Amino acid sequence: MARVSSPSVRATKWWFSFELACLALAAATAVLGVSAAPPSAADLVRCPKSCGGVNISYPYGIGPRCFRPGFEVTCNRSTRPPKLFLGSNDTTTEIIQQYPSGFVEASIVFNIAIRSDAAPGTTYNISWEAPGRSLYIEEESNMVIVGCGIEVYMFDATDPGNMLGFCASTCDDMAAMEKGAEGRDCSGMGCCSIWLETSVRAFRLSIIQKEEALPTAVANATVKAFLNTEDSYVFSMADLLSDKVNESTIGASTTYLRPVITDQPNCRKAKKDKQYACAASSCWDDDDGSGYICFCTSQHDDGNPYIVGPGGCSQGYEPSHDKLNCSRTCGNTSIPFPFGLEPECSATAKFQLNCTSNQLLTQRSSVQYQVVNISVEEGLLSVNRTYDNSDLMEDTDFSELYGIWKWAISNTTCDLAKNQNHTSYACISANSECTNVTHGHVNIGYRCKCSQGYEGNPYIRNGCNDINECLMIPYLCTETCYNREGSYNCTSCPQGTSFDPVERQCISSKHLSLVFVVAIGLGCGFGVVALTLSTTILFQQWRRRYIQKIIRMTYFKRNKGILLEQLIRAQRTKIFTLQELERATNSFDSTRIVGHGGHGTVYKGILSDQRVVAIKKSKIVDQSEIDQFINEVAILSKIVHRNVVNLFGCCLETEVPLLVYEFISNGTLYELLHGDLSTRCLLTWDDRMRIALEAATALAYLHSAASIPIFHRDVKSANILLNESFTAKVSDFGASRSISIDETHVITIVQGTFGYLDPEYYHTGQLNEKSDVYSFGVILVELLTRRKAILLDCFGEKQNLSHCFLQRLQDKTTAEILDPQIIEDANQREIDEMASLAEICLKLQGEERPTMREVELRLQLLRGKVTKKNRGDLHMNNETEPLLLSKSNSNSRTQYIELRAISTSITHEATRCYTMEKELVSWSDIPR
């Protein structure tokens, strides 16, 4: 639903959207008033099937008992043809097409009347939210705004502090616009656009009138705003001058809405709910963590995953895929049918496995598992998780418990499987039977097993064979055993004989007594000798372990282990034993060393749960520095962020404490930028922008969003790690300091790395958030120039890169030190914006620098422009200084603030060839 508020001057009540969301959810629940369990096609036979030319299928519907909560639609029959809209009273979101998977193609448009007599700065607010909180606008959609003399800000209505984008539109005289803008993509003249990089459930547009003289013809023009999936809108003067959206041009633009079932947060919890929506299909956790999505497992299945029976997902099981030439082993692991390594050798796609380096692997979402054993008899899969980056779902037909998965053929019961489709029924062997598979109280499907007295594979013809119970251990009979088909008989021995369980036959009673006496004597003798030896060995082992335990406990107490346990008790961090880490690193073998951090040596290790980790062995042995180690563990245990290295735990049972981090595979940003020229990889402009933005996001989080503000104090390219997807992660918190929220700075012993060290901090000893900003500015210069923070000048003396860069800016000779790859990839405007951001970060006075939050938003807007240029080859002819959003501590209103003006002046002491000694002298002018 959408609403346009009355004009106000740069002030917005953000809680208004939240209030509408609550009302919409309550209304949807009240209207339905029935169970939301998956219906059958017969249950929906009375429900309308279409509106105009648009088909309607569950979970969407019109009228009671025809839709799932949050998916009500309305058919407006007053138009010709009738039109289908989301919700019960929303006329903004028209449904153009609905797909069987639940995705919707919709038209979302707004017409905003602008008052020509309104004062400059007047703000018009528009809010939109999906009815029932169950639909998301897909990422890579484009918000297009047609109008004159306006600035447009787009916010995530569920997170008022999250600005999705900004654009501005101006209008020249009519002749110039017809010549320069007519028939072209939006470039800021007559229209502008905002590219959405993430999915959105609700948004708010703030349209601000600028103080601008407009041509008479467009002075009272209505502002039009609409969403489209492809960046394909071509500007038209007719659209600008019209009173509302022109359906022949703008009205043809549509976007896609993704359905999400929000009554449970994920598939695991939803399966335990009676209203579980995917009872006849597979389940997928939504990427945003707000719910789950149903889908049919088969790639070519166009059934409806939200209903059961006819019209729903087909089972797609192929019992004929058991070919003779299929490979049935991988390493030491057997692969029985219905599993296989190729599509023609497995019953369905979900049973297809992968054999890599003699390891049997299966993929569930983006999580990969190693299959250790497949049990057809018990319907179990033994797995080890080899890689995991989040809490992801399992397939509906697999139920995980402590590395053991129950698996089923399909999401149906035995009765339905036998009666619905005989050709896809899996239990094809003679002497086999069907059994239902459950997880708790939830049925997840059916599987097959051989009947009692038989064993083998029930999924292949004649796969179940008779068990010879007479050869089993332990022996089943106390008498003579006779096997028969599917069973066995026990027969007593003749008189005067006794049954020998070793020989498994009847023998003379006297012979049996002599054998028993000899066996008992030998057994007692060997038992005494074995008991004596084992007692001696066990005592020596106990004594050695006891001494080692005393040593480890001594180190544990000396390293303040009890204090650390209290600090991280409520966190997810673990205190490892020394034995665990020695196994992980092969007793800290030198071949496992992968690097040397600012505060220790780093080893690569593999834990018992197959997680690959980095283990940092601290260089410190001085008892006075133990507090710094405790500081690093306490800080990292509180941090949960995708761009901050994840701490798994620590070990305190050694003289030198150990830290256990996640292993980051692609090294550091320093190595990527300054590595060997012969192996140096290309680093595109977009990659540099993304890495800078991710690092800035992490530092902004540490400064303002973490539970306790944290100043890193050693920000440098060597402390920015890159994982396998080249995502940046900030690391090495050995020098970090946390402060209380009401403090602005702390007095510390100066620590850091020359070339990155804040000059104000160096002279005053006062550490604040602007100290990290200066260091980050040096990293921006490294990204621009691909030069080291300390380099050699023309005289062979050490020179500070930041001073050299600032001097080049002043002399307007920056291009001489830029990386040629940047000059090739980026345009001059983008380079100038990045350079100006680096310049303001490198101000000598901390109060003149921006905060990391401001730096993050500036980079976010700049990268948005670059991404939009790459996607649509748009040419922005008019550039407007962006506004950044900040939160007020005194009330819940949002307000706009402008970045400080970037000064272009450089101190007179800066020279192109600056030695380290001269640099320290130049810093002496800063007041302490």
UniProtKB/TrEMBL annotation:
Residues the record lists as binding ATP: K617
Stored Pfam families: GUB_WAK_bind, PK_Tyr_Ser-Thr
Protein keywords: ATP-binding, Disulfide bond, EGF-like domain, Glycoprotein, Kinase, Membrane, Nucleotide-binding, Serine/threonine-protein kinase, Signal, Transferase, Transmembrane, Transmembrane helix
The keyword Cell membrane belongs to this UniProt entry's keyword annotation: no
GO CC list: membrane
Transmembrane spans: 514-539
Membrane topology term: Single-pass type I membrane protein
Alphabetized InterPro entries for the sequence: EGF, EGF-like_Ca-bd_dom, EGF_Ca-bd_CS, Growth_fac_rcpt_cys_sf, Kinase-like_dom_sf, Prot_kinase_dom, Protein_kinase_ATP_BS, Ser-Thr/Tyr_kinase_cat_dom
Keyword Transport part of the UniProt annotation: no
Signal peptide: 1-36
An example molecular function term from Gene Ontology annotations: protein serine/threonine kinase activity
Compartments where found: Membrane
Gene3D superfamilies cross-referenced by the UniProt entry: Laminin, Phosphorylase Kinase, domain 1, Transferase(Phosphotransferase) domain 1
Residue ranges of every copy of the Protein kinase domain listed in the record: 588-862
PANTHER family given in the database record: OS01G0364400 PROTEIN, WALL-ASSOCIATED RECEPTOR KINASE-LIKE 21
Protein name: Protein kinase domain-containing protein
Organism: Urochloa decumbens
